[in-house]
Design brief:
2 domains, 33% strand, 14 strands
Length: 216
């Protein structure tokens, strides 16, 4: 500072009262002791999940028929028709990724049950269920065709059975064969001519909902 600046400062301080001088000293001290504030950056979410209720769209790679009136489930490999995203919006499983599933008979219908996904070369268990897909009846054979097939099968069985009996003669064999054929024809005629199936066309798509959050 030059001499004029010092002179101006001295005159200003002489005009202040003792109370004002004390307040000025406290303000200067507090400013010198104040620490710069820091803003905490939000911690990014590193947990990767597939959220519950995520829609999973699968497609059948081939035409498929399933016995909806039966008692057995059928394992099948499906494909993703749309990509699956994680909780951060990133693609986890692209289109055409493999999905392991079961076709399950339920109340004369079929339900698709997803069991696992292939994500980055790893099998990831999941739970997702489709709505019930109704079955339709398709004719297998006519009653006469079934009767003929059952009769032939029963006749051959009767012939083989008598061949192991040393006491049987040719007339007994003929009689037993005829009786077996007649019984087989009756059973075949009375057997169901149609079965209940659910048909899945190639490239048909089905939407399933994820039952639980999947952590990766």
């Amino acid at each position: 500072m030059n001499k004029y600046s010092w002179l101006s400062l001295a005159i200003t301080l002489s005009l202040l009262s003792p109370a004002q001088l004390s307040l000025l000293a406290q303000t200067t001290t507090s400013n010198s002791q104040a620490k710069p504030t820091t803003t905490q950056q939000p911690i990014p979410n590193t947990t990767v999940t597939i959220p519950k209720a995520t829609a999973i769209v699968v497609t059948f790679p081939n035409n498929t028929q399933f016995d909806a009136g039966g008692q057995k489930s059928f394992p099948i490999v499906l494909r993703l028709a749309e990509p699956i995203l994680d909780n951060n919006g990133n693609v986890l499983a692209p289109v055409n990724s493999r999905v392991n599933a079961l076709l399950v008979p339920v109340d004369k219908s079929t339900q698709i049950v997803l069991q696992s996904l292939i994500i980055k070369g790893k099998i990831v268990p999941i739970k997702a269920y489709s709505q019930k897909i109704p079955g339709i009846k398709i004719r297998v054979k006519t009653r006469m065709e079934q009767a003929k097939n059952y009769a032939l099968s029963s006749g051959r069985f009767g012939t083989v059975a008598l061949a192991f009996n040393n006491n049987s003669n040719s007339s007994d064999m003929v009689k037993f064969t005829l009786i077996s054929q007649a019984a087989g024809a009756i059973v075949g005629f009375l057997s169901p001519r149609s079965i209940l199936v659910t048909e899945f066309a190639q490239n048909s798509e089905y939407i399933l909902m994820l039952e639980e959050t999947v952590a990766l």
